[in-house]
Amino acid sequence: MKNKLIIFNPKSANAKHRIPNSILQVGASIHDKYDYTLVDGNLEQNPLDKIISLIKSGEYKYFCSTVMPGPQLRQAIPFTKKIKELFPYIITVWGGYFPSNQPQVCLDSGFVDYIVNGPGDNTFPLLIDNIENNNTDEINEIKNLIYKNKKGELIKTKKEDLLDQDTLPNLPYSFLDSLYPLKNYLSKTFMGTTTLSYHSSMGCPFSCSFCGIVPIFNARWKGMSAERMYKDIKYFKDNYHIDAIEFHDNNFFTSKKRVVEFSKLILNDNIKYWGEGRIDTINKYSDDELKLMKKAGCEMIFLGAETGNDAVLKQMNKGGTQTGQMIKDFALRMKKVGIIPEMSFVLGMPAETEKQVYDQILWDINFIKEIKEINADTEIIIYLYSPTPTKGSDLYKQILNAGFSFPETLEEWISPSWENFDLRKNPLTPWLKPYMVDTIKDFETVLNGKYPTVSDFRIKGYKKQLLKLVSNWRYKTGFYKFPYEIKVLHKIWKYRQPEIEGFYSE
Fold this sequence. Notes:
Layout: E1 4-9, H1 21-30, E2 36-40, H2 47-56, E3 60-66, H3 73-86, E4 91-95, H4 97-101, H5 103-108, E5 114-116, H6 123-132, E6 145-148, E7 154-156, H7 173-179, E8 195-198, E9 201-203, H8 214-217, E10 221-223, H9 226-240, E11 244-247, H10 256-266, E12 272-277, H11 279-282, H12 287-296, E13 298-306, H13 310-315, H14 324-337, E14 340-347, H15 354-374, E15 379-384, H16 394-401, H17 410-413, H18 434-450, H19 462-477, H20 484-492, H21 498-501
Parallel strand pairs: 1-2, 1-3, 3-4, 4-5, 8-11, 11-12, 12-13, 13-14, 14-15
Antiparallel strand pairs: 5-6, 6-7, 9-10
């Protein structure tokens, strides 16, 4: 048996698909050292058959998978289990937010051997080195690793400092292209006809208690230099004629200096871009800097507004200086510079009484309407609060006291009741009653009728006008119950929800 590796990207969406940057980064870490192949569950008709066929060749010893919460679990869990049943000698390694946040249930399954807990640029090749050299007794010295020792105890090794992102090897785009043509990953979005997905930094410098990346990065952030980013962007511009970029960083706008430098570099390339940031961070940018970003192609910024209620922001441990008033002021600033703010709100936080939970929901619904009055172009994303709190935080204690618990087996994570949990559409929280969920979803339907998302470029012209007309009276009167006429139009026109589907067209 040889020691080749399969690096798998489970299916994450039904529509057009993004470049699988996560598995490319894993591949880059071993590219000149070990033989490996990439399998993309998004582009393979029968990915499990493909993986089993590769293993049957006798050349593969490792099955490695990135596992994000949500849709990827539907392939990652049953595939890994089946592979371990058919080929017990195969060593299985998982990485990504899900196993890092749920290590116990993953390792207790018996079919996940190791978890890379955060960036694996050093961790992954060192793990393979130690296994190949029969130095498994020294694995506890490798940082960013979670596994079970011979006694069955869960071992979580020390966290590694984030690496200088400019020192990391280039992603093996050419190798991916030899397996899956890169052009298949560059698709039409509302920003352009050929959109690239790119990742330019690691982590986030904040520690919001509801955020799943906090335990992984411990409020740390490191980004590529503007020059390194631009070099990659220029490669895709010259070779694939991209005209838009989605930056999938957890916090793209952390460093103002980097964003300004990048904006100057890309200024004349006619490329639009979208990224994710914090309101209180970007609010520190000057008007001239925001105008420069717009001129350089910044079309839309995803922002975690979370709530306009200052008391709930404190409960979330949002950190920084964000307030409800700042959210309003920022919406107006974005209107003046012409950048679309895409604000997400998290409704259904725990409270001491049922009435308090519902009152907070109604309060935020009215706040969202205020934001729309200030800047009608503001995109609104509504999530139901789904617990991913940092262990030991006050919020973590609150949800446990309220009777919430996570599944105890991996199989339960892909049961129908948990399937949509990490899309924040089915939170399973005991304090959120059915009538509250109905209120939120009915308001969301009316809101999406009154203000159809700009990212759905199929709904335009008469379709958009009809949706607005049908929804207008409900929005004005606040009567959101049973909005069946809007739902019918959404279904006929296949209205898309960017919080679930991203920006890509079908």
